[in-house]
Amino acid sequence: MNVINQDAAIVASESVESAVEQAKPVMKPLKPLQRFKALFAAGPVKPGDAFGAPGQGKSTMISVVTSISLLLLWAVSTELGWIKPLFLPSPFDVVARFWEVATEGFANATLLEHTGWSMFRVFSAFALAMLTAIPIGIFMGVNRIARGLFDPIIEFYRPLPPLAYLPLVIIWLGIGEVSKVVLIYLAIFAPMALSARAGVKSVAIEQIHAAYSMGASRWQVTRHIIMKSALPEILTGMRIGIGFGWTTLVAAEMVAAQAGLGFMVLNAAEFLVTDVVIMGIVVIGIIAYLFDLLMRWLERKLVPWKGK
Amino acid sequence: MNRLQINDVSVIYPGMNGGEPVRALSDINFTIEPGEFVVALGASGCGKTTLLSLMAGFIQPSAGYLTLGEHDNVEGLPRVACGMDLNDQITGPGQDRGVVFQKHALLPWLNVVENTEFGLKLQGVSKAERHERAAHFLKLVGLEDFHQHPVYQLSGGMQQRVGIARALTNDPKMLLLDEPLGALDALTREVLQELLLDVWKETQKMMFFITHSVEEALFMASRLIIMSPRPGRITHEFKLDFNEKFLECRDARKVKSLPEFIEMREKVLAIIHGDEQEGGMH
């Protein structure tokens, strides 16, 4: 606030001077320093903001500078040898390793193969969860018997860390692909089902009453009002769910995997190839972020009324 | 001609946490005559909305029954005693009673015209006929240029216009309006009061309208009922013609400043304030 006010005062006093000189007020262009400061300004202030909710205003430039500074610090500290490459390899080594794994491969598979296997596991679990969790969640919302049946099961296993029931899944389903997909599926299922259920609960009773008054049957109310109304929450549940999916990936690929990003990271850690570990983490992060962007885009397309 | 009859209706809600049961409505006997504009006015908790929910069929009476149809009742006798069938009894919500809510009732994933024809679509009416009927009523409420607009981008007043058009498109026997103008600013409110009177005159439908505003009630009503809480009941009834006066002269301010309007307003205010003080002592 102070910074902007000072800037405004400078600009104002300058325009007063020029008004005296030219008898016609002309705003001078901002000096480089002021222009630099303006990048970090909170943006135009609405009336009431100064004493409104805390934390308003733009933060993009601050985030960009933070990211660049961290990358710089990483590059400088490793290149100057402050940290041993075993603990933190330089970003250039990581990029070089990225290229090497992409072309030649690591642990008997190229980066594309690792990524492909992981995406296959996460997305088949995600698809399976969509097909089951969303209908079950909606059913739990509209039917008390379904709610009674599924509630204790979901609420019991939901807070458990997937690593805790991984051994059980392996005992039951073996060490093949099925147990990996099922582990990720279980992690995605709970948040998705609970979001769908919460979505059903968020329907305005007026909308339901209005539909009945227009001659809707119970099924039509469920189909045309409840399922549409629940859509924003279902999409949020899908976003949260896929996040859980990526979180569980490494755990799923701990046992008897031949390829996969999680497997690649674990395998590299065993041989202390730290640059592959970091590279794998970055790749998982980027894929997860891109998918989140896609989901947000979908949200804007499918539920433009959300929050309005 | 259609009329709505309420016969010895009581509604009793079970007590919360083992408390005394609440008599939301007690022994209501009341008839809305064909083409009548009935307005219900009263302090909070007097059962206005419960009465509307009964008419809409959202809730069932604990005792008594409601009918909507063309049969006439014999004075003083329940219909069963007169050997009449009960086919016209209200047992649930239906398209013969259109409801307009205070807010939150439009479907944001549909645009204006899709919202308006939603009921017809549910009933499987052909697309061409749906569009024609929706267009007719959207024109009646002044939204002929907004067919494709998303409803969540409309102002509150325009959303209520859509709500009114949507209720009319199903060609109901009556409209039930639950404080439809309560959430609007004062200027929009007056514009929509006039619009509703025009709609009433044009369609000749029975109206049951709930409001908290004494002035609005007097301006709109052919018959005004004043309700009182604990137990909810109708305490006063007035036949009014300020709405007819407006439809003749089309000057709302003039009607609302007539000496008889102001006199009536004070009288009604005195009744309602009496109720509230009584309620406050409990």
UniProtKB/TrEMBL annotation, chain A:
Subcellular location as annotated: Cell membrane
Transmembrane segments: 61-83, 122-142, 163-188, 271-291
GO biological process terms, semicolon-separated: alkanesulfonate transmembrane transport; cellular response to sulfur starvation
InterPro entries named in the record: MetI-like, MetI-like_sf
A Pfam family assignment: BPD_transp_1
Keyword entries, A-Z: Cell membrane, Membrane, Transmembrane, Transmembrane helix, Transport
Membrane topology field: Multi-pass membrane protein
ABC transmembrane type-1 domain boundaries: 115-295
Annotated Gene Ontology cellular component terms: plasma membrane
Domain of life: Bacteria
Main location: membrane
Family of the protein in this entry: Belongs to the binding-protein-dependent transport system permease family.
Name of the protein in question: Putative taurine uptake ABC transporter permease protein
From TrEMBL, chain B:
Keywords: ATP-binding, Cell inner membrane, Cell membrane, Membrane, Nucleotide-binding, Translocase, Transport
Residues in ABC transporter domain copies: 4-254
Pfam families, per database record: ABC_tran
PROSITE patterns cross-referenced by the UniProt entry: ABC_TRANSPORTER_1, ABC_TRANSPORTER_2
Record-linked Gene3D superfamilies: P-loop containing nucleotide triphosphate hydrolases
An MF annotation (GO) of this entry: ATP binding
Iron as UniProt keyword: no
Stated family: Belongs to the ABC transporter superfamily.
Protein name: Putative taurin uptake ABC transporter ATP-binding protein
High-level lineage: Bacteria, Pseudomonadati, Pseudomonadota, Gammaproteobacteria, Oceanospirillales
